[in-house]
Amino acid sequence: MSLRNRLGSTRGAFATRLAAVRGRDEVDVATWERLEEALILADVGVVPSEALLALVRERAAVEGASGGDGVVGILKEEIVGRLDGADRTLSVAGAPSVWLFVGVNGVGKTTTIGKVGRRQVAQGRRVVFAAGDTYRAAAVDQLALWAERAGATVIRGAEGADPSSVVFDAVEHAAAMGADLVLADTAGRVHTRRNLMDELAKVRRVAGKGAGTVTETLLVLDATTGQNGLVQARQFGEAADVTGLILTKMDGSARGGIVLAVEHELGIPVKFVGVGEGLDDLVPFEPGEFVDALFE
Fold it and tell me: CA 14, CA 195: separation in Å to the nearest integer?
């Protein structure tokens, strides 16, 4: 299935609003208002939308783009230009490398770890999962199930155990067995936010003290939360030195502009997007392909 079809309503809402602009012979005040409304409703954000349209208007004047199709084409180019150039690779350095996954409960973090792990095993890497969300037995059991599906090993501790100790043990186990990667789940208890952030900072410190090297800290965000996700991203970024974002549920009621918003606001690249519940429905983020799908 193409990315266009996988994006579902994420694509449809934005494309429908653009359709009201395409085909217009003249670009007037109402046209620019419709474009601004489309961007804001797509969760790009007010300030980024205004800045983006200012550039589009400037280019349209210089290039003589008088019709709706020309303006929409310039808008598309500007969005791709803003997203291009970021490093979206996942860093592997040393054995084992440690990728920490952070985010609040309910965003699909554990499932995302399973899918990322499956991709890495398919690429020939030996992978260990660290069940660091020790406060939720269901999360540990779910991660163990994903490890079985992916062909990875899972290290778990007692319920309520210190998450950093579980991650440390997983790193040491990975080093002893010659594994390449440790994918570490972490707690996401939003009701004790300050303690949670302190705990995440500790997990990151401890994960890098032994045989492993923390090369990625990946923040998993539910894309359907829109601008509220930016608040989470800032808080987690302060505690855990986030290196990349994974946006889940992009096939649902998410608005595609959130990709532009988080990268503009935080300067952190989106590395994967989740577009379904299937094993292969977590895909690397490719700006050109993504924007093409939104605009079609």
Answer: 39
What CATH number is attached to the domain comprising 142? 3.40.50.300
User: Tokens representing 71?
Assistant: 């303006």
By three-state DSSP, how is residue 206 classified? helix
Summarised one tens digit per residue, pLDDT across range 158-198 is: 887 888 899 999 999 999 999 999 999 987 765 346 677 77
Domain at 9, CATH number: 1.20.120.140
- pLDDT of residue 238 exceeding 80: no
SS3 state of residue 188: coil
- pLDDT tens per residue, range 93-110: 878 999 999 988 888 899
Q: Respond yes or no on whether the N-terminal peptide bond of residue 163 is cis (omega within 30° of 0).
A: no
Q: Which of 29, 49, 83 is the last residue of a domain?
A: 83
Number of domains in the chain: 2
> Which residue is associated with the tokens 């894309």?
223
Q: Domain of 50?
A: 3-83
216 exposed, middle or buried (CB, 10 Å; 0-12, 13-18, 19+)?
buried
Q: What is the DSSP string of 69-108?
A: HHHHHHHHHHHHHHHTT--------SSSEEEEEE--TTSS
Amino acid at 104: V
pLDDT digits (tens, 9 = 90+) for 135-151: 888 888 999 999 998 89
CA distance 166 to 158: 9
List C-alpha distances in Å: 85 to 60, 169, 182. Answer: 24, 37, 28
**Domain limit, last residue, from 83, 118, 151:** 83
Under a CB-based contact definition with an 8 Å cutoff, are residues 167 and 96 in contact? Answer: no
